[in-house]
Write a structure and sequence with these properties.
The protein has about 130 residues and is mainly alpha-helical. The protein has seven helices and two strands; from the N terminus they run αααααββαα. A two-stranded antiparallel ribbon has the order 1-2.
Amino acid sequence: MKRNGQVDLAVPSHWGQLILSVIRNPYVLAGVVFLAFFFFLYLAALSWADLSFVMPLTAMSYIFAALLARYMLKEELSWFRWAGTVVIILGIILIALDSRQRTEENGMTKYQQSINGGVTHSAAKGRNS
């Protein structure tokens, strides 16, 4: 809005300008790069642990947001927000303390067993060789 002024979306010719201004914005480009980086890290984490373990760990973004808002942007955060951040931290600690990060039986996840028809990991390796 500050650079290009008000855009009237009722006029189709303004759509192209809007799209080009968004594509050329370095902040949007940086956001897309970070999002792609997060996506691939998330996929890697899902290959190592169950979704029920990995998903709550993504809540760490709220902690980073609170810390960055306070110390980088110099925002004043109320004690309610800090208390909420502490609750999130406690939840992450509870999830991380669970020793079962992956549901495995015979070296395979339940999904892998369903794909292989219940065949054990060693038998599936021999069958694929």
